[in-house]
Design goal:
Residues 14-306 form the Luciferase-like domain. It comes from Pedobacter albus. This is LLM class flavin-dependent oxidoreductase. Its EC number is 1.-.-.-. The chain has 336 residues and is of the alpha/beta class. The chain has one domain: Luciferase-like domain (TIM Barrel), CATH 3.20.20. Helix content is 43%, strand content 15%. The chain has helices spanning 25-42, 63-72, 91-104, 121-128, 138-149, 177-186, 201-211, 235-254, 273-282, 291-305, 319-335, and strands at residues 11-15, 46-49, 78-85, 109-114, 170-174, 190-192, 223-231, 286-289, 309-313. It has an eight-stranded parallel β-barrel, surrounded by seven helices.
């Protein structure tokens, strides 16, 4: 494989519709629209939203609804799911929802699929009911979904209307090696959650590329790596802004989740050494700094991984600073 150039690397957005301390969910949705419009102008390729449930800081539970809202307020950027947790849904219903989106916004909708529940076990039971064993059916359900979205299903007794014939691009999402095997065997593009589960990223990458089987939709492996980015004019400002992200991950580690908190001057006043270590392990694939630092970090990351696309998520308390972060990151990539 030829060495990829930073200046030619496609870049995209993952938005969790994060709820910020002191703001409302309505504010979150307004900010998501503004971010989507901003990143569209900056040349970002995709804008994906992720399905999560029962999390006070994440407002993207009705993922397909938000995708339609973002698509309706933008013009060219691809909008999709990063992802839909397929075991939470009937493949037919997902096909109908995304078929509707693809009909309303032709050639702009992506469908990323995950196996995890996107929530805790108790909430998962409420969502899935008697279908609690649905994760075991994930490989078969992906095939069902592909069939419902294809034109070849027109003679079936069960059809997705709308959806049939839209051929919405399907992506396999993952945070483990299991998903890499599935994406490779189906010949589908693969998006890895290196923004919160970096441990198996390089191994999964290798498995996917080595075992990839060309399909009707994809001839060569294609990998998106989702990463945390906090960009600012200086390293010092970026480090300060990143304390909101670190507090968010600290809430995941401790089980004490809160809305996205304001940045602080010193994290050592908040966490203990074990919490710090756990958070830093989860943030192993995070790019924090000014333009020069980010450029160095990204060149090294691309040389190591040879990914095909980078997807950025930025948990920044101040909305204007968040918009600026995406702008600076785009400039870094363009300059190579």
């Amino acid at each position: 494989m030829s060495t990829r150039e930073l200046a030619k690397l496609p870049f995209s957005v993952l938005d969790l519709a994060t709820v910020v301390e002191g703001k409302t969910i309505a504010d979150t949705f307004k900010n998501s629209v503004e971010l989507a419009q901003h990143t569209e102008k900056l040349g970002y390729l995709r804008y994906w939203l992720a399905e999560h449930h029962n999390m006070i800081s994440v407002a993207s539970s009705a993922t397909s609804v938000l995708i339609g809202h973002i698509a309706d307020h933008t013009n060219t950027i691809r909008v999709g799911s990063g992802g839909i947790m397929l075991p939470n849904h009937s493949p037919l219903v997902v096909a109908e929802q995304f078929g509707t989106l693809a009909t309303l916004y032709p050639e702009r909708i992506d469908l990323g699929l995950g196996r995890a529940p996107g929530t805790d076990q108790l909430t998962s039971m409420e969502i899935r009911g008697e279908r609690f064993a649905a994760p075991h059916n994930f490989p078969q359900d992906v095939l069902k979904l592909q069939r419902y979205l294809s034109s070849t299903n027109s003679n079936s007794k069960v059809r997705a209307i709308p959806g049939e014939g839209t051929e919405v691009p399907i992506w396999i999402l993952g945070s483990s090696t299991e998903s890499a095997h599935l994406a490779a065997s189906y010949g589908l593009p693969y998006a890895f959650a290196s923004h919160f589960a970096p441990t198996y990223f390089l191994e999964a990458l290798q498995i996917y590329k080595q075992n990839f089987r060309p399909s009707a939709v994809l001839k060569e492996p294609y990998v998106i790596s989702c990463v945390n980015v906090i960009a600012a004019p200086t390293d010092e400002e970026a480090e300060y802004l990143s304390t909101s992200l670190k507090q968010l991950f600290m809430g995941i580690v401790t089980g004490k989740r809160r809305l996205l908190q304001p940045p602080v001057a010193d994290m050592d006043e908040i966490w203990d050494p074990m919490e710090e270590q756990a958070v830093n392990q989860m943030l192993a694939v995070a790019f924090i700094g000014g333009p020069a630092t980010l450029a160095t970090q990204m060149r090294s990351f691309l040389a190591q991984t040879q990914i095909d696309e980078v997807m950025v998520t930025s948990h920044i308390y101040d909305h204007q600073a968040r918009l600026r972060s995406y702008e600076l990151f785009a400039e870094v990539l363009r300059k190579g």
